[in-house]
């Protein structure tokens, strides 16, 4: 675990903190598609992402989902931290976008390290700041951008985090993430294909020129 921690968090944390994390942290692994955190669940630890990508989703009263942001290596989830420290139920769903390795930090250590390690305190504050900016970007996108613009940004981000020009998602899955209807997404994807921007296949999308 220590080598993975150094690779992902060595630039943030001092050696003594990394050593403490190896002593109290619980290493967990998830497969792509696994639910890591469910809405309404009490959270007893804070995740530190060692590898992979996690998507954070919000759900409305009808059960429809909205993609809020992604977590990548070296990240944590500020909403998870807030639930841990406030002993409240989760209001988000966390799903493994790819295979994921992470370390869960107990609540008692989260509080202790905030006073003990300046690097931990800065990491927590930076994480809150980064997630807030991502949430604002999501709100701006919904409020001010048309669905075709949001779709292009979504495909670019999927390609970036997957490090591939192949996006392994169905039209329905994309519609869920963007809180839209499948027929709308299919129509916009077909338009992008006609423009030579993408190539549509049965269960994946090839990005050509976005």
Please describe what this structure looks like.
With 210 residues, this protein is α+β, with helices and mostly antiparallel strands. The protein has two domains: 2-143, Jelly Rolls, CATH 2.60.120; 146-207, Arc Repressor Mutant, subunit A (Orthogonal Bundle). Helices cover 48% and strands 22% of the residues. It has eight helices and ten strands. The chain has helices spanning 2-9, 15-24, 78-86, 107-116, 118-144, 147-162, 171-177, 182-194; strands at residues 26-30, 35-37, 45-51, 54-59, 65-71, 93-96, 100-106, 166-167, 198-200, 205-207. Strands 2-6-4-5 form a four-stranded antiparallel β-sheet, covered by helices on one side. Strands 1-7-3 form a three-stranded antiparallel β-sheet. A hairpin with a 4-residue loop joins strand 9 (198-200) and strand 10. The radius of gyration is 18 Å and the shape is elongated. The termini are far apart.
Low-confidence stretches: none
Strand arrangement across the biggest beta sheet: 2-6-4-5
> For this structure, what is the CATH class of the largest domain?
Mainly Beta
Helix content: 40-55%
* Sheet with the most strands, sense and barrel status: 4 strands, antiparallel
**Helix count, per DSSP?**
8
Question: What is the CATH architecture term of the largest domain?
Answer: Sandwich
Mean of residue pLDDT?
90
Elements, N to C (H/E): HHEEEEEHEEHHHEHHEE
Q: What percentage of amino acids are in beta strands?
A: 15-25%
* Distance between the amino and carboxyl termini: 38 Å
The tally of structural domains comes to 2
Shape category:
elongated
| CATH third-level topology of the largest domain | Jelly Rolls
Beta-strand segment tally: 10
Q: What radius of gyration results from the CA coordinates?
A: 18 Å
CATH homologous superfamily (4th level) name of the largest domain: Jelly Rolls
The structural class is: alpha+beta
